């Protein structure tokens, strides 16, 4: 489904395609001479990427995109966002090149890092305390399910990514170091040690500068990852000499997993050894990207293409911090919203700071549903820029939910529902053929609506009494709806009556009338399209609700 889209992808305006075009330019510059690059570009722009790959052998190597993960904790919202957004760029690149050019997405786990502190809420903290400073893949698993704490969290990461259907290759830092995959680049760093230090030392404070080395040896005595100065280097032997606090003066090879690198040199080494073409990162890492890019060049590599995304803010506009717990976890979002709505949220304006709080979930769900509906009637040039194209890898679903999430939230409230079965009962007349099996998304949304209403909407509800104008209008609306057949399920017919009452009672602007309906009848400042709501809730029940609101009984 990603073939024959080259011309559309070339002109697409959404950010994944901008990034894909940047990535294409980067790879062509990296692998070809100026003359070759011009020739390849002409072919690709003409929709003949397959001919470009056939002509230039170096283009047949896969384009490699990378994301990183620190397995000292569980996968979180940032992990999802980075993989989801990188996947969107990958699919845009595939469309841009007719899906002829192979790509790989590496999910890299930095699991050779030393455990710096005991995470909160983990069983057997005393055991972890005993293993502090050891590589995460050596630290014992407090859950007792895997060979190490790193292996446990790596498994959680893979289960997490698999659950969202991401296509990726998992790389363990420990396995890459120990297998020799990084050996040649590590030896290059040893030979160019002074050049690397010239980049890193000016970025450090005076005390840190005195002891800094890009190499972190693993103590043969304690197994700790040591932050100690490199005293001597032997480029021919491929070794460093350092003082081990537990074993005195020690010589170790920099290869074979005997050392790991400080994180900025490690990042640069990875880019070089794995030939990474693309990696995005947060705005807080702009300086780190700049320094790692310089180190990558010292190592003989080419820094990858990428961009810096903005960080999330809490409801008060403050930066989200895991230690403060002022953000929203993955489990929390998925209790109240769908995975697709989270992908929708991640797609929107990644270079702009956004609030990541419970209050954004209902809007994200309904915006996603609206985008699916819009996609059905859009021209191909508009479809490819629609977020749902990127969310669903070019094949968005043709059917979603017949009602909005906002409407479901209000239905839960007025029906005092506590189960999906109760909600389905209200749909019996409105959608007589619908079942949980035929409308699986609607069924899922019901569960999310029940959770969200109970935890957030119900505690914040505030009904008010109507003023004289509103009371008269509500009474009139009840009378007009009584004139309709009691089994009416035509939401547009009901909506027309609601609209007519607002006009006849001189509400200016008319939205004041709809605001009154929501505040008096639903206890909220916002609400669903009232006709659709009444059609599902049932006309007799809606009339009773209106009469109770007009009498001020709901506010009481």
Strand content: 5-15%
The largest sheet, given as strand count, sense and whether it forms a barrel, is:
3 strands, parallel
Strand order, sheet with most strands: 1-2-3
Overall pLDDT, averaged?
94
What structural class results from the helix and strand content? mainly alpha
Unreliable spans? none
How many strand units?
Answer: 12
The helical percent reads 40-55%
Number of helices: 26
| Global shape | elongated
Termini Cα gap: 57 Å
- What value does the Rg take, in angstroms? 29 Å
How would you describe the overall organization of this protein?
The mean pLDDT is 94. The protein has helices spanning 6-11, 15-31, 34-45, 49-55, 77-96, 125-130, 149-163, 173-179, 183-191, 193-200, 206-211, 263-273, 286-298, 330-336, 339-347, 361-377, 380-383, 387-391, 405-415, 420-430, 440-460, 468-482, 491-504, 511-522, 530-537, 539-550; strands at residues 63-69, 103-109, 169-172, 215-217, 232-234, 239-244, 248-253, 259-261, 281-282, 308-309, 312-313, 354-355. Helix 2 (15-31) packs across helix 5 and helix 19 crosses helix 25 (530-537). It is elongated and about 95 Å long. 51% of the residues lie in helices and 8% in strands. The chain is mainly α. The chain has 26 helices and twelve strands.
Summarize the model shown.
Helix content is 51%, strand content 8%. It has 26 helices and 12 strands.
Task: Summarize the SSE layout with pairings.
Layout: H1 6-11, H2 15-31, H3 34-45, H4 49-55, E1 63-69, H5 77-96, E2 103-109, H6 125-130, H7 149-163, E3 169-172, H8 173-179, H9 183-191, H10 193-200, H11 206-211, E4 215-217, E5 232-234, E6 239-244, E7 248-253, E8 259-261, H12 263-273, E9 281-282, H13 286-298, E10 308-309, E11 312-313, H14 330-336, H15 339-347, E12 354-355, H16 361-377, H17 380-383, H18 387-391, H19 405-415, H20 420-430, H21 440-460, H22 468-482, H23 491-504, H24 511-522, H25 530-537, H26 539-550
Parallel strand pairs: 1-2, 2-3, 9-10, 11-12
Antiparallel strand pairs: 4-8, 5-6, 6-7
Helix pairs in contact: 2-5, 3-4, 10-13, 12-13, 15-16, 19-21, 19-25, 22-23, 22-26, 23-25
